[in-house]
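Incident review: delayed structure delivery

Summary: a single-chain prediction request sat in the queue longer than the usual turnaround. Root cause was a stuck worker, restarted by the on-call engineer. No data loss occurred. The affected request and its eventual output are reproduced below so the record is complete for anyone auditing the incident later.

Affected input:
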Amino acid sequence: MSQDTVDELVDLLNAYNKAYRQGSPIVSDAEYDTLVERLRELAPEHPFLQAVEPEQFTGRREVRHPTPMLSIEKAYTTEQLERFVVRVRKEAEALGMDSVTFRLTPKLDGLAGRDDGSVFTTRGNGEVGYEISSALAKGVVPIGGRGQGVGEIVVVKSYFDERMADFFEHPRNMVVGIIASDTLNENASTALNDGMVHFVPYRQARSTIVDGRRLVEGTRQLVQDLLKNVDYPTDGVVAEVTDDRLKERMGATAHHYRWQIAIKTKGETAQTTVTGIQWQVGRTGKVTPVLEVDPVSLSGATIRRVTAHHAGNIRNSGIGIGTRIEIIRSGEVIPKLEAVLEVKGAVGRPDACPACGGSLVWQNDFLMCTNNTCRAQIEQRISHWFRILGNADWLGIKTISKLVENGHDSLEAIYRLSETDFISMGFGPVQSKNLAEAITISRTKPVEDWRFLAAFGIADLGTGDSRKLLAHVCLEDVVVLDPEAIAQIKGFGEKTSQSIVTSIGTMEETIRHMLDLDFNLQRTPLAMEQEAVDTPVAGKGIVFSGKMVHGTRDAMQAEARTLGAMVQTAVSGKTDYLVCGENVGATKIAKANRLGVKVLTESQYMAMVTGK
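Output delivered after worker restart:
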């Protein structure tokens, strides 16, 4: 397994998740979940799989949830659903229960929120959300009244299809815009004034109760019956255990509750004809195809563009103008090519880069632009920087494109820009102020040094390997490393090490310049420093699980690292301590006991490390 492959996959998932959280999904739920499962195969203990996919709302007050708002495990097949039911039955038998029932409710596709009657918040990262009570003042209607707990902010689907589909790409896009913006556009205001944007608590949603056998054997009919008259965007059905004792016993992972599952369908399909092919250029020079097709209705939307993955797909399938294809759409987002039905027309692939006119070469199934000064690559590299850094908003690809168009085509140039510069480029006064603040925030808001290093887009050095490298080398010394020094670090091969050094050499000047800007970097402890630490947990493998009282789990993990501990995300034979906060699943504790891992309460752990 290549760590770079894992890192690229995680970067891709983070980009897709960010787009989804901002209301502009760029892949289907099914495609996203397939990538998640691929990551699970490659790196089952990767931190991405152990936490709720985060969302951000700039300028909003953060609010800690009384109990975590977690994600939901997903089942696309009967086999996956059956495994869930079997798992539940085993836990029920351990409690002496003879039967188990499940409550089915529609899985609304909106923005998750929680209303305690006085404060309205988003899900955030599951532990801490953002205060959005202003949404109610704007006109979001709380179904069932205030204080109904956890639910989804959604727009009435029939209203959206009839009145708003021409103005918003997706219903979720409209909802996120309403929540995130202090000023609303005319169409969003109209929907709010018409009372068509709702907060629907889960407890108010229609539901049905079934046993496990009917759940597995009658899934398709149950889903159809439950969703038939639901006039909100949906992306499946949620099945959850009804018995509170069983819920408590099954507990949760850091990502999802074990007692519930989302039943998802592969997605609706349709047939259409290719009318054109557009080619897009990524930061590494990959030139990828997007198919233009005859408009076709799918999942209540009119589809005109379809992703075709990579150039090899066009070459190998013989896709040309007039080719009949089958497309699939899951979760009501951009569809993808499912099958080629009838090949027609000449296969058209670009002879030169569509962005810069540079020469193209094949690398496996990808066409690559070899011109490093290609404008599209520059824009994507700058976008990659801010996306991986992840500590500032406002600098999306359209904004970056405008900056590059005005000659600010490097990180050095962008970090010299002031509010006046943005105004001179045609940005409005408010946006110019926000952009100038974003540049400052990206430099002054704390960010991990490994994230800073990975943001440069160095070949073969994603986020995971950046963290690994900086556990052995100070960030400032990275620019003078030789391949042999990197190859001596476990996990780096000779070819990878040479590739890293070569890539660093091409951007050494930029790296040194950005270091001189004094970013607020959180340093990765060097391995030798960790070994030298004399604490009760130095060199020990520790897993933190559940909701912590003394601080957030992230904060406790960071502190443990400074004490020389090896923080892990899952209990294994290399774990020494499992530190349990609130709501830790019995299965995790049982596994720890089985492996001889010492189980500590949060208080016991704090007493051990403080000596009090």
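Verification: The domain at 527-610 is CATH 3.40.50.10190 (Rossmann fold).
Action items: add queue-age alerting; document worker restart procedure.
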